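Minutes, project check-in
Item: structure for the 146-residue chain
Input as provided by the requester:
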Amino acid sequence: MSPRTHTEVQLDQRQKEGIWILDLRGPLVIGDSEANLRSSIVALAETQAVKIILNLARVTEIDDDGLDTLIYCYALTKESSGQIKLLNIPPHLNVMDLTKLDTVFEVFSDEQDAVNSFFPDRTIRHYDILEWIQEQDQHPTPDHTK
């Protein structure tokens, strides 16, 4: 069996409300790809940046080594008294393997929900369109077009 050729996963790091978000693009598979993720998480853990969200929306493939890397990153961050949460698991990835992840990780489909999960006391305001319309009827804004 010949080895498959993969491009390595690309990682873009950004912060939102003190939470590190790593946007991954490409395959998370054996080799340089999974090694890049490991080294990024190790570097963040060394700087005590231990609130991390992995955005998997643009991950094209995850193999067993990629899954092992996610678990390794989870364990390393937890050892540093931190947390890693997953965001946007693509539906095309192997569902059987990924279902194992939600037994370990908190998984989110909305970035702000993932960020809010790091703040347990945060009250999240949900907007109800009907409630908003009723409020507008009771307190109409002045019409400046006249």
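Outcome recorded: The first helix runs from residue 32 to 46.
No further action items on this chain.
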